[in-house]
Specification:
Layout (H helix, E strand, L loop, with lengths): L1 E7 L2 E7 L8 E7 L3 H11 L6 H4 L4 H4 E4 L2 E10 L7 E10 L2 E6 L5 H11 L7 H35 L8 H38 L8 H66 L15 H22 L4
Parallel strand pairs: 3-7
Antiparallel strand pairs: 1-2, 1-3, 4-5, 5-6, 6-7
Length: about 325
């Protein structure tokens, strides 16, 4: 699918292209899961080659940020679906050529409809592809900040749940299993966010280098510098959250170990408490013929009392030593 954005009367109008050439007045051409025919239309419109999905997925920097035929190719990895159970990393290619912007994507990052709606309401009549690209990058950075803020709040809730006192009604095994699951999901999301921020940092640096002599307005250059600082700050915050998640993971494993030790301690105490009564019962259960105590009238209740007392004394001793 192709959407051509044309500046008309102070707004950026989105025109879907299903057949025929792309209008020459378009300043932004958005290719969404393009077919071969869509790629051909975009190449005929801009006079450049459009990278395939396989080429967009290459990870080496020389394949993601480069100049070719007077056009600047920039591919970034963007986090999508952060609010869902299945977040994904999406490669998006931005191509700047002769004041026009061409974007190629195989998904729906939230920044794109946001920028499209905003520019559809109000847009400078002299808008260029560079201006739209900066708007898109700012929206992506803002979205990354929102995601990290939400992760930070979730991590605080996980921390409180780990260290809060249990009311005894919640099963400890299920509790720590759920906590470990939440930590794992948040750690994966933070890893995606850090990867996306690193990709954005490289793209912004490449864009700000202005090595091809393209004319980016002074305000645009200031925005690029500001974005670079924002991305650096977000990267530091993502690293902090990653370290905190590692601490919470270690703490949770430590809590699980304490729970296991408590269970083992209970069995150890029970074995010690029951050992003397078992010994007494074993002695008087041997049934030898010559055992003087067997002839005692009160031998049976005395043996029972001895077993009870021998069991209570170790328990009292453990309580006194605060081992229970």
């Amino acid at each position: 699918m192709i959407f051509a954005y044309i500046s008309r009367q102070g707004s950026l109008e989105a025109v879907p292209i299903t057949d025929g050439p792309i209008p020459e007045a378009a300043v932004w051409v958005d290719l969404i899961s393009p077919t071969e025919a869509d790629d051909t239309r975009a190449e005929a419109f801009a006079g450049i080659s459009v990278p395939t999905r396989e080429e967009m997925g290459e990870i080496e920097q020389s394949s993601r940020l480069y100049m070719e035929g007077g056009a600047r190719y920039m591919t970034a990895t963007i986090l999508c679906g952060a609010d869902t159970e299945t977040p994904v990393m999406l490669a998006v290619t931005f191509i700047l050529t002769r004041g026009r912007l061409i974007t190629v994507r195989y998904g729906e990052p939230r920044a794109f409809p946001s920028v499209s709606n905003r520019l559809g309401k109000s847009c400078p009549t002299t808008v260029k592809g560079e201006d739209i690209l900066i708007e898109l990058l700012e929206a992506v950075v803002d979205r990354s900040a929102d995601v990290l803020e939400q992760i930070g709040a979730d991590v605080e809730r996980i921390s409180r749940r780990i260290f809060e006192r249990s009311d005894g009604r919640e099963n400890a095994n299920q509790r720590y299993r759920a906590i470990l699951s939440h930590i794992g999901r948040k750690e994966g999301l933070v890893s995606y966010a850090r990867e996306s921020l690193a990709s954005l940092q490289r793209l912004i640096s490449f864009l700000g280098a202005d090595s091809d002599g393209s004319t980016i307005a002074k305000d645009g250059k200031a925005n690029i510098k500001s974005m670079s600082r924002d991305v650096a700050g977000l990267s530091d915050y993502a690293a902090f959250i990653g370290d905190k998640l590692q601490f919470l993971l270690d703490a949770t494993i430590g809590m699980v170990g304490l729970e296991q030790n408590n269970i083992i301690k209970i069995f150890a105490v029970l074995s010690v408490v029951l050992m003397p009564p078992t010994l007494i019962a074993s002695i008087y259960g041997m049934n030898f013929q010559h055992m003087p105590e067997l002839a005692e009238t009160y031998g049976y209740p005395l043996a029972l009392c001895a077993m009870v007392v021998s069991g209570i004394l170790p328990y009292v001793f453990f309580k006194w030593r605060r081992w229970l």
